[in-house]
Structure formats: structure tokens, C-alpha cells
Design brief:
Layout: E1 2-4, E2 10-16, E3 19-24, E4 27-32, E5 52-56, E6 62-66, E7 74-78, E8 81-85, H1 100-112, E9 118-122, H2 128-135, E10 139-144, H3 147-159, E11 166-170, H4 173-183, E12 189-192, E13 197-199, E14 205-207, H5 208-219, E15 229-234, H6 241-251, E16 258-266, E17 274-283
Parallel strand pairs: 1-16, 4-5, 9-10, 9-12, 10-11, 12-15
Antiparallel strand pairs: 2-3, 3-4, 5-6, 7-8, 13-14, 15-17, 16-17
């Protein structure tokens, strides 16, 4: 497991009974987490200073319950990166802190490449990976179907001092890749963070079990002749790291390089890591 443990503005205070208690700079949130099936060592709901709790609904979904005054949105930092955080629908905050392990690795690959790297970030959400890669010196094309998420990615880039080098695209990822192949546009690195299930702006259906393999096959067509890396990140429960490794091996065979697959986790103040999904990465050379 690769564990994000270098955060200063984010901490997991405690976990248990399906919840995680987090400090986002000066704001304390209590959110559900499907991986937390163990018993809590403290009464999480009685922890002093909780600003908001995301309450599940028996009918599905849920809603935020605000306990103490807090800003509508605020900034947090990771190393030299800056992000805006805001409680949103379906328990999200606009950032996945455990992805810092991938941000660090991709940034080091880009800085050590000795050449300008063109990155394609698909299902790119609010741009954590986009900002990290651009800050490391890459040219990034950021693609997501949700206009609001793309706008937030632009805000995060500007907060991090990035004024150029990022192209923002609001589109269905598959259709965009197909057009890029027809145009002959190529990238040295591809990042994707696909959902378990979703629909594109034109009603396009996505189910990760059926859609991921052919999509990775398609994306090989936008790789340059000298690719640097190809990263797949997944939050889908039950999707093992070895599945991502197998997909990369089959879709990118003949390119040389190495493939690594791993659990992604984040450190907690309890001394145990919280599992947060899986990653698979191909690295050339």
C-alpha cells in the first residue's frame, strides 16, 4: 500500500463504525466511508469541535448537518499546491487527499524526464493531478464532463500560482479521446480516474466493469512514441490492484517499461492506514 502521510493541512483523527473524522485545516468533518467496517475506539459523534456531519439516508444518499459555524469554502495546502475545499453533494469535498501519493510520484517523473511532457488527465474532477503535473512543468489537458468541476480545477490551478500550461475541456472523455486520435494529437502521459458508474453529457453510459478495458485500449492511441507513464486510479470497491495491472499489461504490451499496482491509503492519527482504492501505473524505461 502506498500511504499519503505528508499532509499538514489534512488529518484523519479517528475512524470506526462506517465513519472517518477529519480535520481540513481548521474545519472538522465527520463523513461516511464504506471501508471503515471496524469498531470506533472513541465516540466520533461526540468529538468536540465538529463543524459538520454527513448523515446517510435510509433512502440512499444523504445530507450535510452543520453543527458549528464554518466557511462555505476554504483553502488547504499540500507542499506547494493549493486547493479549495467545499462540502458538496454525496459527502464529497472536492478533493481526495490520499491521491497525494500519486501527485508526488507523477511530479518526480515529470521533473526527471529532461523534456517537456504533455499530460492528458481524463475524468479529471477538480484537478488535483492536473495541478500537481502542471506545477512540475508539464503541459496538461484536463477533461471532465462536469462544467462546475472543470471551473473548480481552474481555481485550484490559479491558487497554486499556475497561470498557463493547462487546457480545460468540458466533454465526454471517450468522445474527446476519439477526436484526439483522429486529429493525430499525442500525449506523453495519460491519467484517468474513472467512476464506477456514470453518464456523459449526451447520456453515454459508463460501467467500469464493462467500459474500463476498451477505454484503456482506446487511450493507447493517444500515447506518443516515447510515453512517460499511464496511471489508472480507481475507487470502485472490490476492484483489486492486480486487475488494473492486468489491464495495463494487456493494453500496453510491446511498449517495454514496468507496471506497478497497489492499494492507495492515507495515514490516520490512530496509527492505522485507511484504504482508499487502488492504483495501477505503467512507467516507460
Amino acid at each position: 500500500m502506498k500511504i499519503a502521510e505528508n499532509w499538514q493541512d489534512y488529518k484523519i483523527i479517528a475512524t470506526g463504525d462506517g465513519y472517518k473524522l477529519e480535520r481540513w485545516k481548521d474545519v472538522v468533518l465527520l463523513r461516511p466511508d464504506p471501508q471503515v467496517i471496524w469498531k470506533s475506539q472513541i465516540d466520533l459523534f461526540s468529538y468536540p469541535g465538529i463543524n459538520a456531519v454527513y448523515r446517510r439516508s435510509d433512502k440512499g444518499g444523504g445530507a450535510w448537518e452543520y453543527c458549528l459555524p464554518m466557511p462555505d469554502e476554504w483553502e488547504i495546502a499540500y507542499r506547494d499546491l493549493r486547493f479549495k475545499v467545499k462540502p458538496m453533494g454525496f459527502k464529497h469535498t472536492g478533493l481526495f487527499p490520499e491521491q497525494a501519493v500519486n501527485w508526488d510520484y507523477m511530479s518526480s517523473l515529470i521533473r526527471d524526464a529532461g523534456r517537456k511532457i504533455k499530460v492528458l488527465n481524463l475524468f479529471a474532477y477538480t484537478g488535483g493531478a492536473t495541478v500537481a503535473c502542471a506545477k512540475a512543468g508539464a503541459e496538461v489537458t484536463h477533461v471532465d464532463a462536469a462544467k462546475g468541476m472543470v471551473e473548480r480545477a481552474g481555481e485550484n490551478a490559479r491558487l497554486s500560482g499556475i497561470q498557463s500550461g493547462i487546457r480545460y475541456i468540458i466533454d465526454d472523455c471517450k468522445k474527446f479521446v476519439q477526436r484526439e486520435i483522429r486529429r493525430g494529437n499525442r500525449y506523453d502521459a495519460v491519467i484517468m480516474d474513472p467512476p464506477s458508474y456514470g453518464r456523459g453529457p449526451g447520456g453515454e453510459m459508463w460501467k467500469i466493469e464493462e467500459s474500463l478495458f476498451p477505454f484503456v485500449e482506446l487511450c493507447r492511441g493517444v500515447l506518443s512514441d516515447d510515453p512517460l507513464f499511464f496511471l489508472i486510479n480507481s475507487y470502485t470497491t472490490g476492484l483489486q490492484p492486480a486487475v488494473l495491472a492486468n489491464i495495463l499489461k494487456l493494453c500496453l504490451k510491446g511498449l517495454g517499461g514496468k507496471i506497478d499496482a497497489y492499494e492507495v491509503g492515507i495515514a490516520t492519527e490512530e496509527g492505522i492506514p485507511l484504504p482508499c482504492g487502488a492504483g495501477g501505473i505503467y512507467v516507460h524505461g
